[in-house]
Structure formats: structure tokens, C-alpha cells
Write a structure and sequence with these properties.
Two copies of one chain form a homodimer. By secondary structure, chain A is of the alpha/beta class. Chain A has twelve helices and 14 strands. In chain A, helix 8 (221-230) packs parallel to helix 9 and helix 10 (294-306) packs antiparallel against helix 11 (311-326). Chains A and B meet through strand 7, helix 6, helix 7, helix 8 and helix 9 of A and strand 7, helix 6, helix 7, helix 8 and helix 9 of B. Bound molecules: 3-isopropylmalic acid (2 copies). Chains A, B: Residues 2-351 form the Isopropylmalate dehydrogenase-like domain.
């Protein structure tokens, strides 16, 4: 079982180190290979996703990814910026199915902006299509407008597009995920305005025929953004396109108030996957030893379950994380009265001890 | 001062009737003309935005709009669905500047999903560009994919586009609005992925030169969706494109928990405007006399201020609404312990009495 370890920038190194520590403690036959990615890779090799990193990722069963990005790279041309690495990996490996759980741990209910009764027990799964939509659609660029409100002026443009098979495969992913959970699937689109969304909705309805045990409903993206705030627990599984998924998965994550706890998985059709925390590279706290490594540790658990076929090991990690929370151990981001503040390394050690 | 009154569908008639009652009580020389729009217009005239309605709107100084839509029209072809009326009016009148205040009245703090300390005193203004972006961009449609992941299959596509002058004019609108408020403007885009967003950001930075008294910052749309949940009061004025604005303005509105209180204005460069509540047509409660008319009444106040140059009359309405809240009068949607439940008509009467 070959794992590519890509710590990236900012807190990436610190949090990935703890996840690796936890993986090592499991005594599984894991081959781990490190590589640079993001701003770190740009500085060392002139590109955020060097050829060697991409080759390593392609030839691995799974990628454990930290985080990339820093304000200081904002001045670079877009194709050299750190986040291009993550877009490049998604595209090159065809990682079209992004799993973004939004879970509120009962020990952390108070971290949420929401009233406890609205958030306690939250457990929703957002599935975001990750290789299509306006993220990768061509044509795109700048040109002189030929029509529109101001013909003859400079304009920029992007193309949103989805083909039927692209929607079908993520629909199957979502229906199958719903079958394993509460059997309810909400498909989010903007079919009252977008052609792409109308096809999205049509295909969802068609694929639903094959999953009579799952209740499918449809929600407009603006309404979904509202219902997540109003009554997040009403959702079970949500499926949506790349652009809407970017917005809604972050909104859903922040509802929990503990984004430092939330893992993610991005899979292709061979179950090769990239696993990363839902949060960013937090350059402001990098190197201070205070970042929360639990989202990355839980991402490693998802990796064991989805790409490496080690569900028991995944369960063990998740149980260990639950145990350290019960022990009252907290990094600074989730600290509250009556709990014990620990560093990044201490949190990793505690998870290993709890395994 | 010529006003087109377009009640539309669902609760539209009930709530607009109360706003008209309030306008009449002001004894201003207002010429009001009624017309059908939305599903109601489709049923009577075969089109959601009949020619006569459009002509009336064009020849009026302002439009007071209720709401459109009902599930039963979902079966219609897209161009005949009720919401096409609102898109058609925006386009035909060039209503590019959409003002969406998100205000949390102190009497209604408990209606919010958020903890009181995070929401009490919220007063942010979201400015959404309303006639460009992927809403109106061409080309769009269905075709056989020539490239992408599955060449040769059916695909749907839409075009996101913004020209420089389109971004400039909404930037000026936003900077000027910020000058009249807290002098802070947050521009939201997705420049790490989209060409359109990169031009958006570039133009915002350029226009900022003309407003040295306003502090401009930039936020990615996914982060904005998070920060609205985490710390909404940190925002003052937010400006964004049509698509992101659709999502974020509804998210921001729902944070208050009292979307029945929130008005909106959509203006063109001649200050002709369409005024409507931020909420929808609520067909489930239509005809029951329980809908909250205050968002529509407050929309009428915005109309007096922005399109009819009657700021004192606008102030009077807003003060009257504040007074009925202080009197403890509440429609069902904002009812809480110790307050008095009133009907739609009783609420309108109370505002008139408080004028
Ligand atoms: C870094 C950025 C390109 C990326 C995205 O928009 O997909 C990020 O926001 C995410 O959600 O993983
Ligand atoms: C009805 C719909 C087309 C419209 C939009 O998406 O703009 C609505 O959601 C709004 O925000 O006014």
C-alpha cells in the first residue's frame, strides 16, 4: 500500500507529521513517500506541482495532503500559485468524487455559531463533483466583447459545463453513499437559471430510478445556503456540482464551528484518493505548534477506509479521536472552559496513546 | 410619481396590499397601476411577463413587486416559468444594482439560528450585480461535447462573463454605498479559479483609487460563505457578482432568522427601480392571511428613498415598522413568547396607525 505524503505549506507539515505518526502506530505495511507541493514546491522547483510530485501521486494508492497557500504567493501568475497544485492533482488523477462530511462532535457543540439545539448531533455528508463544471470548462479567458451590455470593451469569461456521463457517475456515488446512511439525498442546482443545472437535475431524476430505496429531493442553491443555516440537521446526503459544492461544503463545515475536525476525501473510479483536512494552510499560525491535527488524522482514517481497504484501522483511528475528545484534550482552536489545552504534537501523541 | 404594482403569485397579493395601504396613508401624489406577473400572468395571458406588464414597468418610476412562483409551474418549459418574469424585468430595465440589506432587529434576535451575541445588531449591506454573469451570458444550451472528459456525449453549458464597464459601474455603486455607511467594502470573487473573477478583482482595485476613504478587501466566495456564519458582524458592505450574490445574499438574510423583515431594491442608472421582499411567494401559506407584510412595506420605503426622492416618507415608514415591533406585534413567522400574534392585515393597519 503506497502512500504519497504531500505536506504542502503553512501548517501542512505539522499536521501531516501527526497523521503519519498515527498511521505508523497501526503497524500496517504502508510505503510512504514524501514530496513537495504548493508554495514550498514553487520555491524549491519553480512549480507548485512538480513533475516528480505528480508522478509519485499517480503511482500511489492514496495521497495524504496537508494544505497549500500563503498570501505571499498572491503576486504570482495564476498558473504558478499554490492552489493550482490541488486543481492539477484533481484533474490529472480524475478525482471527481469529493466527500465532505460536516459532523458536530457532541464535545464541541459550543464551538458552533449556531444555537446548540440546531447543531448538536449534526452529521451530514456533502458530495461535490470535483473535476467538471466552471472549474475546468473551456473556453475561458479575456477578449473583446462582441455582444452583451458593452460590446467592444474588454471582458473575461468562463464556461460552466457538465456532460451526461459526468453527472451520472457522481449521481451513482451519491445514491450509493445515501444507501449506506439515512437514505435521503438532496441534489442542489440552479435549474431555474442554468442550462447546466437543468441537465444535472434531469440526470439525477433518471439515475434515481435505479435507487428506489433512496428518497431524492431537489433544492435550488440559494435555498440550500439558507436551509443549511436554518435547519442543517434536516439534510442527510447532499450532492452538487463543483462550484456550488465549493461554497456549500465550506458553509456546512463552518456551521459546526470546528473546521479543524473535518476531513475530506477525493476519489476517482479506481478508488485512488486524495485525503486532506477541510481547512486551509493557516500561514498565520504555521510553525507555532498549535494547529489542530485531528482533521488530517481523520483524513488518514478516510484513506484507510476508501482507498486502502482497511476499515478496522479506520475505525480504530476514529474511536481514538473520539476518546481524546472525551478526555478533554483540545488544541487552541477548539478550547473551551474546563478542557485541557494541548499542542499539535501532544494531540497526535494522545491519539496514538488512545489507539 | 408613477408606480407599477405587480403582486404576482402566492402571498404576493396579500403583502403588496398592505404596502399599498401604507403608501396611500402618506398622502403623496402617487399614480399606481396594477398588472399581472408570474404564474398568475401565465394563467391569464399565457406568459409570465406579458407585454402590457413590461410596458407599464418601463414607463413607471418604480415597480413594487410581490413574489412569483409555485411548484405547480415546475412542469412548464423554462421560458414560461414564473421566475422568468423577474429575470425579464431585470434585463429589460437594466436593473444591474441589487441592494440586499441583512439587518437583525433587536426585538427579533431570538429568531436567528445564531447565538444572540453573534447576530444582535447585525447591519450589513450586500450589493449584487444583477444583469450580468452566468445569469445572462451566452452562448448557453445543450450540444454534443467535442472535448472534456466524455467527448461525443450530450452536455449542457452556460457562459459566465463580465465586461470591464459592467464591473466598473457596480463597483462605483458599492464604493458610494460604503461611503455612506462604515466605509468598509468587501469584494467577493473566486479569482483563484475563474478568469471572470480575476477581472472582477482587478477592476475593484482600480476603482478603489477613486475612493481613498473606503477600505477595500477581497474574499474568496467559499471563505465568505464561512465568515458570514462565523462572524457576520465583521462585514459592512459586500459587493459580488450575480451568481455568488444570489447565494450569499440569501445566506446572509437567513442568518437574521427573520427573512420576512428584509426588503430589497434593484436599480438601473436612471434610478428606476424594482422593489421586492427578499423572501419568496410561499404558496403553502397563501390566502391564509398570516404572511408577514413588513419586508414589502420596507421595500416600499426603499422605493421612496431611492427612486422617488422622498427620504422623509421612507424614514417615516421605517420608524413606524420599528414602532410596531416595539409594541410587540408579530406575524406568525416572527412570533415569540410574550409577543402578540397579528394577521397580515392587522400588521399593515398597525404600521399605518404608527405612521
Ligand atoms: C484552493 C481552491 C482552488 C479549492 C477549490 O476551490 O476547489 C478549495 O477552495 C477547495 O475547496 O478545495
Ligand atoms: C427567481 C430567481 C431567478 C432569482 C435569482 O436567482 O436571481 C431569485 O433567487 C432572486 O435571488 O431574486
Amino acid at each position: 500500500m503506497k502512500i504519497a505524503i504531500l505536506p504542502g505549506d503553512g501548517i501542512g507539515h505539522e499536521i501531516v507529521a501527526e497523521a503519519v505518526k498515527v498511521l505508523n502506530a497501526l503497524n500496517l505495511p504502508l510505503e510512504m513517500n514524501w514530496a513537495d507541493v504548493g508554495g514550498t514546491a514553487y520555491e524549491k522547483h519553480g512549480h507548485p506541482l512538480p513533475e516528480a510530485t505528480l508522478e509519485l501521486a499517480k503511482s500511489s494508492d492514496a495521497i495524504l495532503f496537508g494544505a497549500v497557500g500563503d498570501w505571499k504567493y498572491d503576486v504570482l501568475e495564476r498558473h504558478l500559485r499554490p492552489e493550482q497544485a490541488i486543481l492539477g492533482l484533481r484533474k490529472a488523477l480524475g478525482l471527481y468524487a469529493n466527500f465532505r462530511p460536516a459532523i458536530c462532535y457532541k464535545e464541541l457543540v459550543n464551538a458552533s455559531s449556531l444555537k446548540p439545539e440546531l447543531i448538536a448531533g449534526l452529521d451530514i455528508l456533502l458530495i461535490r463533483e470535483l473535476t467538471g463544471d466552471i472549474y475546468f470548462g473551456t473556453p475561458r479567458g479575456r477578449r473583446t466583447a462582441e455582444d452583451g451590455h458593452f460590446p467592444g470593451t474588454e471582458e473575461a469569461f468562463d464556461t460552466m459545463r457538465y456532460s451526461r456521463p459526468e453527472i451520472e457517475r457522481i449521481a451513482h456515488t451519491a445514491f450509493q453513499a445515501a444507501q449506506k446512511r439515512g437514505k435521503r439525498l438532496t441534489s442542489v442546482d440552479k435549474n431555474n437559471v442554468l442550462e447546466t443545472s437543468q441537465l444535472w437535475k434531469d440526470v439525477m431524476v433518471e439515475v434515481a430510478q435505479q435507487y428506489p430505496d433512496v428518497a431524492l429531493d431537489h433544492m435550488l442553491v440559494d435555498n440550500a445556503a439558507m436551509q443549511l443555516v436554518k435547519a442543517p440537521k434536516k439534510f442527510d446526503v447532499v450532492v452538487t456540482g463543483n462550484m456550488f459544492g465549493d461554497i456549500l461544503s465550506d458553509e456546512a463545515a463552518m456551521l459546526t464551528g470546528s473546521i479543524g475536525m473535518l476531513p475530506s476525501a477525493s476519489l476517482n473510479d479506481r478508488n485512488q484518493g486524495l485525503y486532506e483536512p477541510s481547512h486551509g494552510s493557516a500561514p498565520d499560525i504555521a510553525g507555532k505548534g498549535i494547529a489542530n491535527p485531528l482533521a488530517t488524522i481523520l483524513s488518514a482514517a478516510m484513506m484507510l477506509r476508501f482507498s486502502l481497504n482497511q476499515p478496522e484501522a479506520a475505525d480504530r483511528i476514529e474511536a481514538a479521536v473520539q476518546k481524546v475528545l472525551e478526555q478533554g484534550l483540545r488544541t487552541a482552536d477548539i478550547l473551551s472552559e474546563g478542557t485541557t489545552k494541548v499542542s499539535t504534537v501532544e494531540m497526535g501523541d494522545a491519539v496514538v496513546a488512545a489507539l
